[in-house]
Amino acid sequence: MAALFPKRSNTVFRLLLALMVLTPPAAFVALMVYVRTPWNTDQYVRVDQPVEFDHRHHVVDDEIECLYCHRDAETSANAGIPATDVCMGCHAQVWNESPLLEPVRRSYFANRPIPWNRVHNLADFAYFNHAVHVQRGIGCVQCHGRVDQMARIEKVESLQMRWCLECHRHPDRYPGNAAVQAASYDVFWGTPPRPADEVKTVRAITSLTTCTACHR
Amino acid sequence: MVSRKRQRVRLPIAPSNGSDRHDAIAHTSGEFPEGALDRPEVNRRELLNLLGASAALAGLAGCGQRRREKILPYVRQPTGVTPGVPLQYATSAVLDGFAIGLLVESREGRPIKIEGNPDHPASLGATSAWDQASILDLYDPARLKAPLRDGVPANWDLALRELRGVGARGRPPWFVMPPESSPWVGTLIERVRKRLPGARFVFHSPTPHTTVYAATRAAFGRPLEPQFDFKKARVVLALDADFTSTMPMSVRWARDFSEGRRLARPTDSMNRLYAVETTFTPTGSVADHRLAVRALDVPGVALRILGELAASGRTIPGLPAEVVKALPRAEGAAEAAFVRAVARDLAAARGASIVIVGERQPVATHLVAHALNAALGNHGVTTFFTEPVLLSPEGSATLEELVAAIRDKAVDTVVILGTNPVYDADPELELERHLRSLPTTFHLTRIENETSRACHWVLPETHYLESWGDARAYDGTLSVIQPLIEPLYPARSIPEVLALFAGEVDPRGYELLREHFRSQKGGTEPRWEAFLQRGLDPESAAPRVDAKPSFGDAVAPLRAALAKPPPGLELNFEKSPVVYDGRFANNAWLQELPHPLTKLTWGNAAVLSAATARALGVENGHVLRIRAGNRTITAPALILPGHADDSITLELGYGRTLGGPVAEGVGVNAYPLRARGAPAVANVAVEVTSQRERLAVTQEQTRLFRRPLALLGTLAEYRAAPESITAVLHGELPSLLPPRVFEGPQWAMTIDTTVCTGCGACVVACQAEKNVPVVGKAGGLGPREMHWLRIDRYFVGETERPRVVHQPMLCQHCENAPCEYVCPVNATVHSPDGLNEMVYNRCIGTRFCSNNCPYKVRRFNYFEYTHDTTPTRMQRNPEVTVRERGVMEKCTYCVQRIRRAEIRSRVERRSLRPGEVVTACQQACATGAIQFGSLEHAETPMVEWRKQPRTYAVLNDQGTRPRTLYLAKIVNTKKELAS
């Protein structure tokens, strides 16, 4: 009697067996990898905004400091998206007939807010506070990247808990050194650079890794 | 599978084992609440189905379209507003005419939390449970959203036209409004009377303050406001006076009274409180000696105390000799001892005692108090008088006069502002029928209620957080009412409607108040600014007036009180410490707040003593049919140790038929039996029906089962052997666990149970601050209550005369927390600064932690309690996570406030200041019983208290090393009365 199965069915069967064993862990690993990729974290997506606002122009060409518009970053948990009247402060005089600024003028005169698209979205159960980070000398660039080189804002860091903890566990490795301090706190980035020894003594960064530091 | 029903033997009360002082009284037999031992009815197949389904669906939770969130910044950012930084504004809440100063936290224009104004004399930074809960009323989805005309939605334009027409035709209108102390409203009333001569004003409250004025008129010849300085009082006699929780100045009085009871050392002096009352009140529960008598017998007891004092040879200034001669002496064994002890103690504390009477008592009891205070030399020291705070302008009238006028066809327009007289007025007036007979009736109200049903026009009223106004506190301090938000719905305030009748075309509260302020003496712009900023005018407290008692009109009421009240069973009507007179009935936080003594939620009950229950053959939950006169109501019975015999207490404010979905159908309406606003009616007949009702009591367990949980001792014991009271729960225990490393500030809490009255303000404050959901009556019966902070109440001592220990119970933040060891996913962990942290996102809902928690303070969200699409969402605190179903939650020691303070200190480059972090419960507490802070700050009361010998840790023997410590309750008993 001829064999019911060809010889290769053994191989197929073994392969299937191997697949059965390997698929669940592989799927698991794949998912774990996936959630860490930019596909999941929304990194490097240049987000369209209702106003074609170009940070490059405002930061580099006009030398406007971050805190001019995002003025709550030093005092509040939120850095703050500027109110329309901040835009109109200049653009009532400059480019006040530019068609690009039509949505801003419409917002100002109709008294309706501009619906900006959120780029850096932190989960609701994580309580991040801008003031304490900025006041301790962590430059905007540390988390938001080189906004001065972005036409449209994109997220460059994952903003995942793992990423927060890297710095919270080893604050010394990150922005504690004067070089970063100087780079991120130059004229484009907020306040003038501070002497290195002041950075050490005044900042006294603490390693906060307790859960309720961020989850309340 | 049939669930196993346990035979429940409900002993009304079991006498305690006298040998064990910590053992107390039980009125239930089981150790566990009903249903706790029942097995869930799930069979094997169902279980497998559920398991499969949950496994299959678990993966789906991660799926879902990610949507890009929008950010809507301001168009013009208002000055002073920084998104993310809360602002506080001063305003005032008014209850029956008396103001309490508040600071309201606003987040981007949304008021979310109410705190007391530390500058305000009626608050000193604390609040009542009602103030705390009033924020929920603002967002109440049941609020009236547009005017109604004969039940049909209309608009304000039509209503305004109608209102403006009132003066033009027909007879002058009558107004029914709540008692008012506002000078601004006073001037508006004057203007209305000038424009519409003959307009009459009824200041209506079901629990009126007017008896106080009637009594001072009889005793001093003119109405006066009695004021008290509890800080100076060594002996206090409270005659049916719940002065720490339901009287006009309670928050302040509770603070002052407790200042005299803070023992830093065993040798410190302590004031003594004698309470004569019917049901157990928060004040009675902190009393050192308490006499429970029928409400009708209180005047008699008062007279006998006065009689004893007169017999001891003390002259009673002003009281006619004929009355003095007729004063009775102490009688009856238990009462005589009490009466003599009180008289002797009062006599010994000359010029340092207070006799205070509840507002509902008849004039005679008030007169006795005035006589006692005068005889004891208290006038001018601990008690003094000011002019009345409440308005009683010319043209004011009573509801009786209104009804008589309606009968005589002398009225055609009645304007009811804010109050609900159809529900809470004397039933014999038949107000509803009379109102319906009128051609034009208006009712201004926040929520449609019983009175609205009888009126043609129903107009939406603003919440006080949406209105402009002013009011006086009990001491006369002028306080501002300023809005935190524009009215959520087109609504108007009482003064705005009054101004319409005064001839204003389109009155706006702000402009009118501003104008009124300017017209006053010293009404300058800087004064106005300061008034708004501080919330009060600091120099406006009413000046003391000299008053000599003459007892001109006192003889008749005193003689009437000398007659013996009718014996037999009485029905006693009390203001509810939860829903007040019914006005807070649609507030779910208050409905869910356990009654301070009975721990009953969502309803009232016929509360009676164990002996009376035995005599009637009644057990908990039996429905009683109570007949007084020709009216009958049915109410479930609830036995309360320490309640007066021969008396049944029914709280007012329940059994609403219209007034919002939360209020309606909850409890029993007691008003129909309450003729002429009497405190109690005699000769009620009670019939036990065959019906049974389950009562949502959150603490069925009153007994300690000989386990020392809440400790109590007398001052004498404490002085003799300071360590003896707490020895049982004191001392370090050896531990196998590796020592924990703590760094940074070390958070801890100390609670003094000596001064805790159990009022519940902290519970509501916690609910408001921490987004704690409401579970409803079904949830309460589950029991699935969610309160992060509860107040455990234990009865200690004799069955008939128990003492009460209130023990606020919250997460103890154990250093060796049993919950942490059993969590399979590390969702509850310890922080280096001593907090037991709960990480909601890790929690998978095994509830192992709750099982292993010896304090039972962990709460599990069984249902989707937090899913809320109504405006009440706007109240939520954005700094606290809104927990989902299936997640364990518990007290976090207000970690959001800790972190906020830490961040502030880091931004300002300084260290944390002592007392910088205040928890929500601590902030609300009127008696200052709760203290919180870091153990590093040794000079704070929190740390100092912990060094006292009466400090203990609940369940110290479990080795949990809780960070929350308690101070044992010390009572200052009098030797002759010590039992």
So, CATH architecture of the largest domain in chain B? 2-Layer Sandwich
Strand content of chain A: under 5%
Number of helical segments with 4 or more residues of chain A: 11
Report the strand count of chain B.
Answer: 40
Enter the CATH topology name of the largest domain in chain B: Alpha-Beta Plaits
Q: Uncertain segments of chain B of ≥5 residues (pLDDT<50)?
A: 1-29
Helix/strand-derived class of chain A? mainly alpha
The number of domains of chain B = 4
Rg of chain A from C-alpha positions? Answer: 25 Å
Shape of chain A: elongated
Describe the structure.
The complex is a heterodimer of chains A (216) and B (979). With 216 residues, chain A is mainly α. Helices cover 44% and strands 1% of the residues of chain A. Chain A starts with 7 loop residues before the first helix and ends in a 13-residue tail after the last helix. Chain A has two domains: 13-41; 55-81 and 116-213, no CATH class. In chain A, helix 5 (84-91) crosses helix 6. Chain A has helices at residues 8-36, 38-41, 55-61, 66-69, 84-91, 102-110, 130-135, 140-144, 161-169, 178-184, 196-203, and one strand at 116-117. Chain A has eleven helices and one strand, in the order ααααααβααααα. Chain A is elongated, with a radius of gyration of 25 Å. Chain B is an alpha/beta fold and 979 residues long. Chain B folds into four domains: 148-179 and 202-207 and 396-419 and 430-532, Rossmann fold (3-Layer(aba) Sandwich), CATH 3.40.50; 210-261 and 268-386, Dimethylsulfoxide Reductase, domain 2, CATH 3.40.228; 566-692, Beta Barrel (Barwin-like endoglucanases); 712-731 and 743-977, 2-Layer Sandwich (Alpha-Beta Plaits). Helices cover 26% and strands 18% of the residues of chain B. In chain B, the strands form eleven sheets. Chain B has an eight-stranded mixed sheet with strand order 6-5-18-17-16-7-8-15. In chain B, strands 27-22-26-23-25-24-28 form a seven-stranded mixed sheet. The longest helix of chain B has 16 residues, at 333-348. The radius of gyration of chain B is 28 Å and the shape is globular. Chain B starts with 43 loop residues before the first helix and ends in an 8-residue tail after the last strand. Classes of the chains: A mainly alpha (216), B alpha/beta (979). Strand 1 (116-117) of chain A pairs antiparallel with strand 1 of chain B.
